[in-house]
Amino acid sequence: MSKSVSILGGGLAGISSAVFLHDAGYEVKLFESTSKLGGRTFSFDDAETGFRFDNGQHILAGWYKNTFQLFDKMNHIPDLSLHQNLHVYFRDKNGSNLEFIAKGDNPFVAAAKGFMNYQPLNLKDKLSLLRLRELIEIDFPEKIKGRKLSWLLNYLKQTDNLIKYFWEPFVFAVFNTSPEYVDSELFYNVLATAFDDPAANTLIIPNDYLDNMIAKPFIEYSKNKISINYNSAVNEFKIKDNRIMECILENGEIIKSDLYVSAVPFHSFRRLFNTDIFEDHFDSFIDLKPASILSVFLVPDKMPVNLKHKYYFGMVGILDGLMHWVFFKENYISVTISAPEYTVNGFEELSKEDVCVRVEKEIRDYFPEFRDTHFKKVKYFREKRATFLPETNSVNSRLNTVCEIKNLFIAGDWTNTGLPSTIESAVLSGKKCMEAIVKI
Q1: What is the dihedral of CA 176, 178, 179, 183, to 10 degrees?
Q2: How far, in Å, CA of 122 to CA of 114, rounded?
Q3: Residue 135 · residue 188 · CB < 8 Å
Q4: The pTM is what?
Q5: How confident is the model at residue 192 (pLDDT cuts 50, 70, 90)?
Q6: Residues 124 and 188 reside in one and the same domain
Q7: In this structure, are 115 and 9 located in the same domain?
Q8: Per-residue pLDDT at 18 exceeds 90
């Protein structure tokens, strides 16, 4: 008889755990505290505009091997736009249109050629890139432990121009914050992972709504396979002799399984235990700092034609602005501002209306196509705990898959995957739980 596993949390980590464990032959039940699955990858209908919006724009990369394995396990082929070449547009306040293009099968060589042809970089900027060869030194990871990425870029003599026109937009896209708040070792791990894969330069953007990419395919996959229980928040684990004996839900229901996977967000993990139990088993845990992601949706009377083709995938990085990334959709514009409470001066004093006015003005300033456009609706959507701040030493709060509680395994994009808070990190964490469980 197969062992039973209860998975607590129906975000990407919980979904990944459920699929990989069922595929490995386990009896799986999933418990989600809300009425929907998918965590941050959800979509919502807006009554005012009649449109369906995604909870921010999510981007995938060609090296997301575990994510694509999850799609395969669910027999799902998502609707994605992808190209083997990394091709990204940037706009500055002067209205200059800048393009970074990395072509070729070898990620490192392709990136090097991309830098050499990138318009805003001068000879000094390009020569400073040669310092990146230090990254391959055997002892380099030890040199950067406990250091900020801003320190590392300075150590590698990366010029202000290079940081402004490439490193900062890259860091915002991958880590959802600025180099000042990113751990150097985590940055190094991402580069090593990416450049080890021939598909590193492949940029992938979903064409479909986010809930159609993972949550709905999982629901279809789960029929007659996996029990999904909504509105089933955990109240507390009952633990004896370093084992979970039962799990009590807030509605009073008692769950008993051979094994348990916690796939709750980082800000909810502590609440699964009483204080003494938590301190006994997770005494080194320090709460991660939450970081928000702010989306602003602008709906014009009429969208200019072909913007999605003019700007590769309709995606543009913004330099020197409140906005970080702009995505042109068929009927609206989606703007992303990452960790504004840390990266935007005076953000907490700004009202929602202030932010919307500034974003609308920047759209007009950066894109002449919208100078005379009337926006019939500008929508503000901020998820306050969308991710965590990947600052120096945050690795100390990123728990391992296996812990002292013998039948508990921990998943989540915030766990020790070696990656930032991404779709791939969440999916990988679920797969790591499966791999740990099959070994016992």
Answers
A1: -40
A2: 13
A3: yes
A4: 0.94
A5: confident
A6: yes
A7: no
A8: yes
